[in-house]
């Protein structure tokens, strides 16, 4: 199909020009669509080595790290892209999601650590509303929400 034809084309381009940043970025984009975050990280690393400010690579790498649950690394990469192009719509949107998730999950953890179970419940619920959630973090947040609700209801 079309995906296989595109993969063949990119393989040919990389055979002729191994440092072609745009071909590697396209491979990384396809890998992100397929949920292959390790390939995204590998390919964007190669792109950024030859083209340090490559916005698409910064975006894809940031999205991959976010999906893997490394929200801090994602924010750093997305911020770097935004420093280079503050009006880049996709970078802005991805950064907003990462920042929103970090803010809401931190608020939930802080409320739980002080024993404010009503606030923790609301904050965990708010963090769960962020879409998409980083890999594995939904389970963690749901467990926190259940614990907060149980303790709040026991008061």
Automatic annotation (TrEMBL):
Sorted UniProt keywords: Repeat, TPR repeat
TPR repeats, residue ranges: 55-88
Pfam family, any one: TPR_19
Nucleus as UniProt keyword: no
Spans through the membrane: none
PANTHER family cross-referenced by the UniProt entry: DNAJ HOMOLOG SUBFAMILY C MEMBER 7, DNAJ PROTEIN P58IPK HOMOLOG
Protein name per Swiss-Prot or TrEMBL: ER membrane protein complex subunit 2
Species of provenance: Prasinoderma coloniale
């Amino acid at each position: 199909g079309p995906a296989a034809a595109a993969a063949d084309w990119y393989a040919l381009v990389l055979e002729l020009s191994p440092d072609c940043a745009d071909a590697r970025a396209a491979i990384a984009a396809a890998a992100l669509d397929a949920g292959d975050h390790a390939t995204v990280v590998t390919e964007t690393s190669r792109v950024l080595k030859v083209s340090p400010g490559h916005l698409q690579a910064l975006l894809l790498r940031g999205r991959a790290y976010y999906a893997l649950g490394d929200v801090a690394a994602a924010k750093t990469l997305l911020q770097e892209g935004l420093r280079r192009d503050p009006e880049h719509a996709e970078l802005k949107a991805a950064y907003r999601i990462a920042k929103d998730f970090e803010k809401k999950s931190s608020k939930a953890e802080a409320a739980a650590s002080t024993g404010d179970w009503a606030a923790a419940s609301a904050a965990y619920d708010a963090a769960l509303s962020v879409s998409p959630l980083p890999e594995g973090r939904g389970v963690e947040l749901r467990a926190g929400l259940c614990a907060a609700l149980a303790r709040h209801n026991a008061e």
